[in-house]
Structure prediction request, 280 residues.
Amino acid sequence: MEKSVSIIIPTYNRRNYLQKAVDSVLAQAYPCFELIIVDDGSEDNTSELFENCDSAIIYIKQENKGPAAARNRGIQAAQHELIAFLDSDDRFSENKLERQVRAMQEEPTYLISHTQETWYRNGRILNQKKKHNKNNGDIFKQSLQLCAVGMSTVLMYREIFERYGLFDENYPCCEDYEFWLRVSAEQKFLLVDEPLTLKDGGRNDQISTVYRVGMDKYRIQAIMKILTSGGLTREQKDAAMAELERKCKIYGTGCIKHGRTEEGKYYLSLPATVRSQQIA
Prediction:
């Protein structure tokens, strides 16, 4: 019996892009799914798209609370054991679910999988740097360096959320980075090594652009959170501390350069404070 998938699309003022994302789900070769749209307080008449929507689509509207809260609302509404996400300006390739569900059935020890991506900017394919390639197995160290898992690429069992909790709604951005740290500290990720997700970028309305200057600040918070969780091995702690030092140096130096001297000094001294607390 084929497993059904709950696909969650959080959206905010993306009416002009959302239809392509929805169409890419409805065109899937794998037929067993429900599609949950969580409208996070859009003000662009997004709701009009779903006045007479397909029976496979569940439309939920909430007040604007951010991407973490929107994803969590979708998870709570999901009816199926397998859960996937799709950002509202991205698309699935036609065989994405089919390939990924089959791969997870063939490798039943994995609770979560992801795929490679094809990136577009202004309609043209963007060559990715080597560091952005997705990896198989233990991805904790890579996840410290950058967000190593594309949100639109994942397929996971609900058990992941039961073990590790939902997305942290205190993060206006980098909530995915923080979540992947929690999960990858214990779980291995199955890579379906094909570009099954199509990602559009380079626009001013994207979270990565809106919070571009402060993203390292939230990633530092995420590393601090995982360091104090008590669940890391010694090797993982060492890797987390090394990345904390690197990010604090970059962010702290940037603060000082832009006249935020006290904030810069705080972040430059933070790793030493954390080390002393760990020793104590």
